[in-house]
Amino acid sequence: MGNTRLLKSYGHALSLSAALASSIEPGQNQSGLAIDLEHQRLFIGCRNELMVMVDATNGKVLAQVPIGAGTDSSWYDPGSKLAFSSTGQ
Predict the structure, then answer these.
(1) Which of 16, 19, 39, 53 is most exposed by smallest CB count within 10 Å?
(2) pLDDT band at 85 (very low <50, low <70, confident <90, very high)
(3) What DSSP designation does 20 have?
(4) What pLDDT was estimated at residue 15?
(5) Cα atoms found within 13 Å of the Cα of residue 16, Cβ hemisphere only
């Protein structure tokens, strides 16, 4: 990514350029992106039926979980501290 993109919310700024420019292997073809601002975690829904959790400060993949096929959206609920991915299955 050539430009640095910042997500600003509640007085915090997270640099997404490092995280999104990094590899999200084993995830491929990302489709949805959600963020946990409190813990600076990105949840990325991928078309190869994985959701990967990434440290938003350095781009390191921290975890992966299987999801259904056809993901097109990801979101995070700070109240329940759960990440979700909408899929076709």
Answers:
(1) 39
(2) very high
(3) H
(4) 52
(5) 15
Q: How far is CA 77 from the centre of its chain?
A: 13
- Whether 31 contacts 43, CB under 8 Å: no
Dihedral Cα 77, 80, 86, 89, nearest 10 deg: 180
Structure tokens at 85: 């991915």
Query: How open is the CA angle 12-46-48, to the nearest 5 degrees?
Result: 160
Give all strands (DSSP E) within the chain, no chain letters.
Answer: 6-9, 12-15, 30-36, 41-46, 50-55, 61-66, 73-77, 82-86
Alpha-carbon distance of 6 to 18, in angstroms, equals 11
C-alpha 32: how far from chain center: 7
